[in-house]
Amino acid sequence: MAGRPVTGELVRPRLVYFERWVDPVAEEILGHRDDVELLRLEYADPLSANWAAMAGAHGYHVQPRTELRGPWFGDSDLLARSPRLLALASTGAGYDYIDVDACTSAGVIVCHQGGTNREAVAEHALGLMLALSKRIAITDRALRRGEPIDRFELRANDIAGKTLGIVGLGAIGSRVAELCAGLFGMRVLAFDPYVDAATARDRHAEKVNLDNLLQQADVVSVHCPRTSETMGMLGAEQFALMRPTAYFVSTARGGVHDEEALAGALRDGRIAGAGVDVFLTEPPPADHPLLQLDSVIATPHIAGVTVEALREMASEAARQWMAVFAGRVPPRLVNPEAWPRYSRRFEEQLGFAPDPL
């Protein structure tokens, strides 16, 4: 932080996290720096000790939803008990378990690691598409159960030249579009209200509305974040628009699609199959309706969990924390509207003013 204008006593910022990073490279980057105090907490430690550590923290790196335990959610209660907090960051691209509005009101910025697992999730989505269209899971199960096999009754489909509908054309959705258009010559339709038609074309897709996408697509692949806009966006009405030969794939977030409605559409033969990596409750119970269907391929939110993606995620998170504590604007800032109040609090806490937004 050399060269920053000092208006008070410089403070060594404290960054806390629970249990472990998704890859130890983050600790290698941050652990030996003299301008950051990296403090590891454990859920099993006394609440009083963890709250005391949190009360003195300037940054909090929040574990993913599946691993995160209460009361350590990024909510208004935690903010009230952590008066020095300047920034929270999610582990991955999703940050729906952090109360962004509460953070903004408190002058706390929120960051995410979007794009760091882009390749991993895009490849997983493509794998689900291929496994569904080639009937890999269904035929594998039939063989393992010792069922009589009629190869022609189990005939599959090619995806080459078919129509792919992508819901959410961000970092991951655009990579899926690129792969499918390039590898298989698929026609790619995209629904994303935050992407204009020209940008969609640059990302190998044709911009359409959601209804048109659902009606035309042979495969629907979901890549949008979970927000108040997208929660429950895909329900019975939307599945009814899909073709009976179409497949539904989601590597986005649980809650974006209605799981009961999806199970109903599959049971009734209104769509051909589904590949789901995300559930509203994770892990889902063994008696979950979707897990009872041979037409479903389910994975436990592992699309972004590859060796390469986790290392990239952790290293980029560490670098983003270094940027935050150096007073720079972080590259994956969620709530820029918090910056004015955050800047005042930053200067009060750390002794120098951050860069203007």
From TrEMBL:
Keywords: Amino-acid biosynthesis, NAD, Oxidoreductase. Residues 126-303 form the D-isomer specific 2-hydroxyacid dehydrogenase NAD-binding domain. One of its GO terms (biological process) is amino acid biosynthetic process. GO terms for molecular function: NAD binding; oxidoreductase activity, acting on the CH-OH group of donors, NAD or NADP as acceptor. Residues 44-335 form the D-isomer specific 2-hydroxyacid dehydrogenase catalytic domain. It comes from the Bacteria. Belongs to the D-isomer specific 2-hydroxyacid dehydrogenase family. This is D-3-phosphoglycerate dehydrogenase. It comes from Blastococcus saxobsidens.
